[in-house]
Amino acid sequence: MPSPSTTNHPTAPDVLISEVGPRDGLQSVKATMPTADKLRWIDALVAAGLREIEVGSFVPARLLPQMADVAEVVRHALTHPGITVMALAPNLRGAEAALAAGVHKVTLPVSASAAHSLANVRKTREAMVEEVRAVARLRDAQAPGVLVEVGLSTAFGCTLQGEVPEDDVIWLARLCAEAGADEVGLSDTTGMANPAQVRRLFTRLRAELGAKAGAAHMHNTRGLGLANCLAAYDVGVRTFDASLGGLGGCPYAPGASGNVVTEDLVFMFEAMGITTGVDLKRLMAARAPLQAGLPGEPIYGMTPEAGLPKGWVPG
Q: Up-side HSE of residue 278: CA atoms within 13 Å toward CB?
């Protein structure tokens, strides 16, 4: 089934920007954003034209108190027509809760790095493939219209393991697709990717999985986030994860944005004549509810600092 982001918009943008700040961003900071501020922030993101938003993570509140209100946040996001509401679920139990809440898409984190898999979810990569299979079966039985997405984390390198062989990434992507994932994307979790590597790996992924090859989730830890997104675009990727203000940071690189900054990514594409469907002025205005809900939290972005060029006309 097509996602709501495509069904309600006959003239779909050239690329889909998937906003992950309310999940990946908020999950990465110590402070907990009050629920009312989260809802205002999501409203502002929708008003800016974002059509896919990862609104939270279905994990135990004792592990991530930032996500204790995720079901309420999902219910609110669902009041916006035409938006694909997605949430992360690390396992079958989380997926059950996500489906019960009514999400349109469930994202499962599967580590390409064997070491990171054990450290992050205490499961081997093969065990996580079985988790994907179980979630896909549950989806088929309970909510066949919901999409199951796998984000292959540490696909470009791992702080624990170091190099992650590209053959491992493609092998694991194929297993996830065979297990029932509708999309398999690649994540530069540790900010180690470079454009040549991104082109190579996404070219292989698309050759292996065809239409099931998914999004590029790039980090800006070493300043290559936008370059890596453009490299992915050049080889056919059309969905990009990003976080407003680069929220989330990177614990291994003080002063660096973790996630690619949504504002800068949208500016790059629109300046090239590649439509995103996002209104940049409204997008930058969405920083206000974010900052209100997380006072003192550093946020990033070159475009909001510099402003739009004189005579700016979007793509």
A: 33
